[in-house]
Structures are given as C-alpha cells and as structure tokens.
Design a protein that fits this description.
Elements lengths: L1 E17 L4 E3 L2 E3 L4 E2 L7 H13 L5 H4 L13 H13 L3 E10 L9 H12 L6 E6 L5 H4 L3 E15 L3
Parallel strand pairs: 5-6
Antiparallel strand pairs: 1-4, 1-7, 2-3, 5-7
The structure holds magnesium ion.
C-alpha cells in the first residue's frame, strides 16, 4: 500500500535593476529599458523557484549550489539552476505538484506578460498550466521596488511522493 507524502518549499529573490541588461523573468525575455543585474542572468523568478524546490527537501539554497564567486556561473541561463534543483528533487523520488509565484516590479506592466511567463514555467517544471500561478504586484512607488531600483520574486512549491506503508 502507498500513501502520498507532501513537502512545501518557499523561495525569495531580489536583484538590482540597471542599464544595458536584458530583463528575463521566468525564462522569458521581456522588452524593457533596464534589466536585472547579477552574476548569472539574474532571473529572480527562476531563482525563487529554485530555492523553493531546494527548500522543500532541505537541500540548502541556490547560493550554496551555484556560488556567485564561481566564474562558471557567470551569465548562466538560470534554467540551468532550476534544472539542477529539479534533478535533485526527482532523484529523491519527489515531483512538483504546483507552484505559486509573485513578481514585484514597478515597471514594466506585467499583465500582458504573465500568460507567457506562466507557460514558460509550466514547460520548465513539466506541470499542467492550472498548476502554475504567476501574480504581479507593483511597489506602489515606495521602497526599492517602487523606486525601480530592484525587482523581487516570491515562490512556493508543493512536492509529493508516494510512500510505501505497511498494510
Ligand atoms: Mg538571485
């Protein structure tokens, strides 16, 4: 006999905004006059989801797996980080059930980009669309988000696995 077991994970990430950088959110390139600064491609959405996946199984965090002091991680496509975290999760017999994310950005307006980001995350995580939620918030013109100094992202992920139980 088996019974489902569940784990939940939480992730958060912030990067500063700057000129002459591509803005990439959830693996999608978004037209904007600024981009997120970072050692990798600075995709806050994928970084938050990667940390949520690692957190669900207490496997550390993205900084431990991919130190920003390692030249190998420079300008890395963050899908590499996400795929590594997924590999670690699946190797232990767990799979994502659903994810929920919030992106905090004053500009650009993300309403028209949310469906594309959602589809991108569904593809990357191999999840049905109705198991992937992408929400967006402005910073109400206050704080580092509102002043367009930074963007951030939050993510929660639920994992499940079938556990054998004595009948
Ligand atoms: Mg990051």
């Amino acid at each position: 006999m088996s019974t489902p077991a569940y784990r939940i994970g939480l992730g958060h990430d912030t990067h500063r905004l700057g000129p002459n950088r591509a803005l990439i959110l959830g693996g999608v390139r978004i037209e904007h006059d600024r981009g997120l600064l970072g050692h990798s491609d600075a995709d806050i959405v994928l970084h938050a989801i990667t940390d949520a996946l690692l957190g669900a199984l207490a496997l550390g965090d993205i900084g431990e797996l991919f130190p920003d002091t390692d030249p190998a991680n420079k300008d890395t496509d963050s899908r590499v980080f996400l795929n590594k975290a997924l590999q670690l999760v699946r190797a232990r017999g767990w799979s994502p059930v659903n994810i929920d994310c919030t992106i905090h950005a004053q500009r650009p307006k993300l309403a028209s980009h949310k469906p594309t980001i959602r589809q991108s995350l569904a593809n990357l995580l191999d999840l049905p669309l109705d198991a992937v939620s992408v929400k967006a918030k402005t910073g109400e013109h206050v704080g580092p988000i509102g002043r367009e100094e930074a963007m951030s992202a939050d993510a929660v992920v639920l994992l499940s696995r079938e556990l054998k139980v004595e009948s």
